[in-house]
Structure formats: C-alpha cells, structure tokens
Amino acid sequence: MRPMENNKTPIFKARNLNKAYAWGEMTVLALRGVDLELYQGELVVLLGPSGSGKTTLLNILGGLDAADSGEVFYRDHDLVHASDSDLTRFRREHVGFVFQFYNLIPSLTALENVRLVTEISNCPMKPDAALRMVGLEHLGDRFPSQLSGGEQQRVSIARAISKQPDILLCDEPTGALDCETGRKVLEAILKVHEELGTLVVVITHNAAISGIADRVIRIENGKIGSIATSTVKIPLQEIRW
Known about the structure:
Strand order of the largest sheet: 6-7-8-3-9-10
Structural class: alpha/beta
Largest sheet: 6 strands, mixed
CATH superfamily: P-loop containing nucleotide triphosphate hydrolases
Strand content: 25-35%
Radius of gyration: 17 Å
Shape: globular
Order of helices and strands: EEEHEEHEHHHEHEEE
Distance between the termini: 29 Å
C-alpha cells in the first residue's frame, strides 16, 4: 500500500462551498460554507443523517454537480469553473463511483459490465482482474439478475476500480444491504484501498461504518460539524448495524 500523504499537500481542496436547490417555492441550502481537504491514500468516511449534504458534497467532488460558489481543486483541476467536457474527462480519468443502487446493465454479464468501463479508460486493469480483486472472478458469466445484492454491489466496485482511478467515491455502498452482506462489500472496498492506495471516500448515515476510516468527517445541516482522526480501526467482523 502506498503511504498516506496527509502531512503533505492535499490532493482535494474545497473552500467555502455553497450549494442551494429550488424546491417548489422554497430554497434548500444543501451546502453552507464547506471547507475540506483530502489526501492521497487515505480512507475517509463522511458521516451524517439524510439531508445533511453528504451526497451533494460527494457529487461536487466527483464532478457530477457544480457548486454555486466557492472553490474545489483536485490537484490542478479547477472543478468549479471547468467546462462540461473537462468534467467528463476528469471523471473518466480520475474518479470511480460506487452508488447505493448498483446501476448495472441487466443485459450484460458481470464481466461485460466491467469491460464496458475498461474500453473507454486510459490505463485499465483487465476486467477479470478487477472481479478477482472483489472475490467474484468465478461469477463473471452471470447476469445481474443471477447475483445477490451484495454480489451486484461488488461488481459495481469492480467496475469502478477497473480503470484504476485515483479516487473512489462511495455513496451509501451498504445502504441497501444487511449487515453480513455489507461487511463483504466493505471488505472489497478496504482491499482496493490497501492494494491500490486509492483515496477512498465513503458517505454513510451509519456511525458503525466509521470504524474503518482514517478520518471521520461529520456533516450536519450542510456544514462540517467535526473531523476526527482514527488511531485504532475496528475489525470488520465486529461492525454491527
């Protein structure tokens, strides 16, 4: 595993991020003056209740959404003022996404779902190697309907990491899973983090999951509530929810 560089220059830097959405005649403030730094090789949990702004922040970091004001830089990439084509290139070259709902193409096998990403990536790993990393190399010929929820989520992780991204952004990756199945998904995420040295950001409302993190950043009402550095991680088998 590559060493975590949190004593050096952050690779993500956000300053005074603000984001509002219109909801009927109301305006909802999703982010309010968020400052954040993320470092190469760390695993960060963004923890907060539903509606706290976690997903909005993740989408802005991943180039899926734009802030109304403030700054976001990934290394020398200015994500706030980037064009749509620049953001598309940023996502393709640097970011892997894992969502709560797996977004697999039902007419393609597990291996074909992964291969779809490798065909448009600059420096991908082999699709079967990505499936092997999440422990599903023996199920590559199965369609999503023939897989359990946890297996589908691990295929989505394999798909996300197959392009060897610098950043893996996970939005409630265990939210639709029971505890035992969720542990297998977290195990796959941890393996990716340890073997590839990828910056991993996991958002969740489940405080139990924070035990796997290097840092836990709490988000409340669109603001950073607290940041805690973990010194002792909880073994996966002890995590309950």
